[in-house]
## 1
Amino acid sequence: MDTCESRGELHRGTSIRTCHYKLIKSFLRSFGNNGVVSRFNNTFVVDEFTVAATIWVDFDDVDSIRAKVSYAKEKGLLGYSVFQLANDDNWILSKAAQEVDEDHHKRRLLIIVLLSTVTVIILLGIVFCYCHRGTAATITKALYKIRKCLSGAEQDHVEGNGSDLTAFSYLTIKMATNNFSRDNKLGEGGFGTVYKGKLRKGEEIAVKRLSESSNQGLEELKNEIALTARLQHVNSVRLLGYCTKRDEKILIYEYLPNKSLDHFLFDPRKSILLDWSKRANIIEGVTQGLLYLQEYSNFTIIHRDLKASNILLDHNMNPKISDFGMARIFRKYDLEANTSRIVGTYGYVPPEYVRKGIYSTKYDVYSFGVLLLQIISGKRTSCYYGPHENMNLLEYICGRGRSGWS
């Protein structure tokens, strides 16, 4: 039984249920008519009852109840200590108190839902920003930390650590390439597409945009940035910057107007522009670039994808080695290493690499030998030759050599 010491006391407890009043009724009826005395009046709701002259229960009249219920609602209180013995099921205060309780519950539920929704949105935004910025942050770290392949390499200063590279915005690259227009396309391959671009200051650039389906993923992108950024040689392509905004993987290089060597070697009309003097110059330039990678750079670098399409030509037809996505840094005094992942281009890959996964500086020497044969013969590695067209390029040339080129 809920009683109160002062008439109409407000409280923050739960609302009073009808079952309580039924118990009070039974209690009062057990005394009979003579045992229950009204202190003030016999209105619909009386002010106070006394039971057996000793037990008393306080009540408010209807107007007081209504006024105090209104006050309770206004103050957000959850209950009101008062009883009504008549007409339990329509008890005004109990209903009002329950409404206040329900309103408060709804408000709490609404606040919880709103806070949860806002929290989820904020968390999703943080995750998106983290993932989006994480790519750029990872690449930036790669620029300052080339793989520790040498003993004591941790103490060596890595030249070309990427501090001069520019992190281009996506909008800048989009404007430079005229929204990656087909008219700006220089070439296309399994890795993606290369576009010609022009920055606001008039500098021409080559934009390598990796496709989503490219085999060259983030690891290869970091590798290419880290390696190309530190190469300082006239026969290696110069990296200007990168862009990783909007989940893009874009590299920005110096622009070389004559594209790649394969555009000349395997085109019957353009190949006549490669006289023996130019071919010898290209061979010498690639040799110097390869010698730099293996002997004269701070680390020995194995390219692992040396081929005609990765030899770019400047306006004077001087060659520059490009595309270091598959390259690996090698210890100066190590002879070979193993890998379970076979990479490279068919026809340029040495047999021991295919069979056992062994690679070394000899890998690039083998690829260079194939490239040398292509520069001299103008033939592709992907075709078959001979009277029955059943020999690859190496078999064909070796056979011609044995027969005295007859």
Note: The chain has two domains: 1-138, 166-402.
## 2
Amino acid sequence: MLTNIAKCLLGCYLTITFQYASASPAKSNSIKELLQLIDIQSTIQIELNALQPSIDRNAERLLIKQLNKEKLSTVDEHLAVVQIGQLFKNTTEQFFQHPTTMREIENIYAKNLSEEEIQFYIQFLKTPNGSNIHKKLSVLNPQILQYLNIMHNQAWKDPKQLEQFQNQINKIIQPLRVE
């Protein structure tokens, strides 16, 4: 019985090893086709739009720090936050439209997916279900990121959480302190 299980495991191992060893590297044309099918530019735009509240919070923090205030109080200051947030977003959009960025995204796909996996994904996206699922994921992923960002920010506002975090940091730093 044990030898049958060992043979089965060895067979599975060899099959998996052979599949990975025989997987061909992703072709540039296939990656470009995939990125076109997933409409990477629109996907990035959707995610940036979903991140706008976070971008605006960062703009507000920046302005508060630059003005050396505890909080913003005038209409002009709040308008400046909107302008700074838009500047952050526009700068990020320009970064994603840069050819170097797209080449790096292509490289990431090439490093992580084989030609066979890309072809399978392309075929899947060409089906109505594949296209529909991709569109839904393009909406879901930014919502999940936004939720995680909100939860992260709420955790940092919780005094108990902050105290616990500070205690953990103190434990790490304590041995480094020279007396």
Note: Residues 28-151 form one domain.
## 3
Amino acid sequence: MECLIPDILFTLLGHKSEVLQCIVDNDTNFTDDEYFILSIEDRQLLKCFLNLAEEYQKLNIIIMSHKRLEGIYKKPDDNKRGIYFEAFVDGMYLALQPYRKCVNDIEKELSNNKGNKCLLAEILRKVERYKPLIVAINDILEQIEFSRLYGGQILNLLYEVVTMKFIDDKVQLSFIFKQCLQVLISQLNTFFARGVIFDPYQELFIEPKFSKNTQEFKHFSLQPSLIPSFVPLSTASKITRIGDVIKSLQQSHNQSLLINFRDISTEIYGQKKDQLFSDLLNLGSVPLFTKNEFVEVIDKFYNVVDEYMLKASFNEDSFVDHMKLIRDFYLLGNGEFYKHFLNKISSLSQKTELSLRIIKVAFTNTAQDVKLHKSVRKKFEFSSLISTNADETTWTNVKLIMETKWPLQFIFTNSVQINYSKLFSFLSRIKRVQTNLHEIFIEKKSSYCQNGHIDQLKTKLIFLIDTLYSYLQTDVIEDEYFLLLEKLSYANDFQTIKHIHDIFQTNIMRDSFMFLDEVYMAFNIILDMCENYCRYMTDITAVLNPQYKQCYDELHLLFTKKPNKLNKLLNTIQEIQVTPKPNQFLVRLNYNNWLIKSISSDT
């Protein structure tokens, strides 16, 4: 029986032995003497050896194939093998090192003590203590193969395995996990330093997004299916934000060469750079990796980046100056400018197509007329909300674009600028209608009693539009703007600034009825009617046009007792319970019971 021990050890190291297999299979063609002297118990021991050897052979085949040059990488579409699976194989090799050492030690012991007999049961006892580890690794490998796991999914599986309390071989399995974790750490190290992802097989949970037309980098996004369970979604979002900041800062400095990336990371992290990256690399060598440790390290990076962005936001009052431009131009705070600008544009009708070139020229000429600084007017451009390539658009689809300094583009995103453009088009329509009504009232005021009802209608319309515009500018925009400035004095991080601004914009849009489609559309219909009224009042042939009478009748219905469209609209506003601001509009409109009297006095 002792003569079979070399074959047994050879088999335990991952090689096949036909001799042992024939003995176990009770092959009748096998006539060697050893077969006849083996007892049933010895044959049973051989079966145990072969079962263990078979389990190890499965792993050894994978290890050996990946140690060869031609097997290091497989194509991405070939079961999604990549650098994480290679790290998994390297981890298997390290985890099974004690098992191989045990077999080699047995072989050395036998060669040094040839006179001593070695029992098979003793050998089996020594090697079988590694069987749970080998079986556990095989189970992991089978799950990877069956579910076609790759990248972060492999890392997640290993993390879940090593954190299971009933696993006895945590230490050895952690070698595999740490090898895969080291890949993630290396990727994050490059990502945090240069804003670059080394991910040839698309295995990381972060991917860059590019513009379809220009292939210009836009932002980093998450792939949820590849996020390991020890990376909370909030932490993953922080990682992408750090990358976005680095890439945007590179673009703002026009740095596209790799040699300049080092300067960017030093600029952002400052004196804390070495300690931050040291903490990140140390995650791969901690005795017991935990989710909290990973989150803590990422938070350190994020807090330093946030602190840098906060300083940049208030550098030379850039954010405050930007908000002043928002207030003056998007929200019509610069009254003198818009008085001239809106007069230069022939129509702001919701239905009339306007040339973007005419709008741009009018804006530039107005800026020159009011002696606006050249640096300010260069910050603004006009386009269409529907298509960036359009030459014409309706006023409600005009998009006012303002140039932003780094890092304010993280606050004034494209969606934020679209919202401001919607506010701009709504406020400017109201302002233009208000101006036209006042001009008509002065120019067309009748001295004849028989036209007194027309003057009354104009008076009511002017009061309605004046009240609406005054409410939006005074009760909504001014209140929220000064509240914004007050909150900014207490802001101690960049995300707080962004949050304060988001609340500011949301509150303005809410109190301007833009989230209430029924009310918002009703006001736009009234503005349409007022625009038509002004158009017909300034047309010399208006009296002969049947549409004039129809327009007049529609406006008159706003103030009639039955049916009262305006009253229905105001009742809808009164039912708004989210904020008390709309009630201030009603109070202004019904000052001294003017509205009730004006409606009741109509027949």
Note: The first helix runs from residue 5 to 12.
## 4
Amino acid sequence: MMRIVLFLATNLAVVLVASITLRLLGVESYLAGSGLNLTSLLIFCFVFGMVGSLVSLLLSKKMAKWSTKAQIIDRPSNANEQWLYDTVAELSRDAGIKMPEVGIFPAQQANAFATGWNKNDALVCVSAGLLNQMRPEEVRAVLGHEIGHVANGDMVTLSLIQGVLNTFVMFFARVAAQLIDSFLRRDDDGGGLGFMGYFAVVMALEVVFGLVASIIVAWFSRYREYRADEAGARLAGSGAMINALARLKAQQEMPDQMPDSLTAFAITTGQTRKLMEKLFASHPPLDDRIAALKKAAYQQ
């Protein structure tokens, strides 16, 4: 909860700085003449930009269970489930977090994910394929990776970053559209964009600014994958984490079986080859992740 409060406070300060900057540059007074109140617009965009992200975060566990058809292990029914449950419990204690819910979802592709609005109210799931294809120490490393996401508060931070970027996409799209409209009114004797023209410009600008925002979100998502790999190596051993990623690399030509809504939270998302794919990818290439772990192990 403190992470959320501090993040929101920080970004409210950013919004305030943006408002002051626009005022000092004379943009606010210029737009005020056309009837646009920047302070009200900022508040409107902040509320609507954050609501969607926060609602998605609060519903993330339920949506993940539903979309993956995960079987939650409340009472282990066999030796494999007991081992999985006990391993997650042990890693959670080592990471200093409350035991998350544990589940298995039906997919032949080896994969796993963690989600939840709070590090003490999370969900960690692995695929049936992962349990069948990996050695116990490799599964343990993957679980350590997912526990690392939970302990680092990655789900919360990613959602808040998305919400703040949504705010600025909405805000600057409308400011830019209003500036264009005001400019055209001045040059065309009151013509301007008109209602439909203004709406079309706002939508087009939101697409452009949204692409930039997506690049920022993807960059942070890749960064947190490296941190989670470090957590997996710390909790389960560097060798096991490297071997687990190498095993994932061997199957990255397989079609991705994760729901789109959970792609950013999975341990792998398949192979990315093209520059634009890498720019928008939520995960770094597995070769880069393996190299980073080997470098860290060598430096130790």
Note: The CA atoms of residues 66 and 190 lie 53 Å apart.
